[in-house]
Amino acid sequence: MRHYENLVIVKPTLTAEEIQSNINAIEEVITSNGGEIATTDAMGMRKLAYPINKNERGYFHVIYYTIAPAAISEIERRFRINEELLRFVTIKYDTKREVAAWNKLVEKAKKGTTPAKAEVEAETVVEEAAAEAVAE
After folding, report:
1. pTM score, two decimals?
2. Inter-axis angle of helices 115-135 and 96-111, nearest 10
3. Strand order from edge to edge, sheet including 55-67
4. CATH code for position 10
5. Closest to 91 measured CA to CA, from 31, 26, 6
6. For residue 65, what are the CA distances in angstroms to 41, 53, 124, 125, 128?
7. Cα–Cα distance between 96 and 76 in angstroms, integer?
8. 58 burial class (0-12, 13-18, 19+ CB within 10 angstroms)?
9. Using the 8-state DSSP alphabet, how is residue 85 labeled?
10. pLDDT, position 5
11. Which of 10, 26, 73, 135 could form a disulfide linkage to 59, CB 3.0–4.6 angstroms apart?
12. Cβ atoms < 10 Å from Cβ of 8
């Protein structure tokens, strides 16, 4: 069993129920192929770097899981078939260092703090400290 991370971007035109049903279908595909979902992280609606199929925004969702490598091709095939997904990316964690990073990401996702949120919070603190230093 290897460690994987999937980031999927769902169309923004869907309702909350439709988005959740798509995410549940993705999770079902993973578990039906013998995978075990460690955690998921709903990142919410975000602006895309560039338009995809005339969509400026998308609903981002990250899924962390372990599965046999042979099942990844079936999972990605199902992603390609799903017309509600704008994009997806599958990241494989191989080395011990990568698996340790995967474990940290899973723990942060379980706590509700994503690395991006932590970085933004850290940058805000640094910027506030710099602004205070300039003001003095």
Report:
1. 0.75
2. 80
3. 36-52, 55-67, 2-10, 85-93
4. 3.30.70.60
5. 6
6. 12, 29, 31, 33, 37
7. 25
8. buried
9. E
10. 93
11. 10
12. 22
Reported as a single tens digit per residue, the pLDDT across 85-125 is 999 999 999 888 888 888 888 888 888 754 444 444 444 44
The rounded distance, in Å, linking the Cα atoms of 106 and 100 is 10
Helix axes 72-81, 16-32, angle to 10 degrees: 150
Is residue 120 included in any domain, yes or no?
A: no
Tokens of 35: 């995978």
Q: How many C-beta atoms lie closer than 10 Å to residue 104's C-beta?
A: 11
40 belongs to a structural domain = yes
Q: Is residue 44 part of a domain?
A: yes
Which residues span the domain enclosing 82? 2-111
Sheet strands (E) in the chain: 2-10, 36-52, 55-67, 85-93
Look up residue 91 and give its two tokens.
């990241």
**Is residue 133 assigned to a domain?**
no
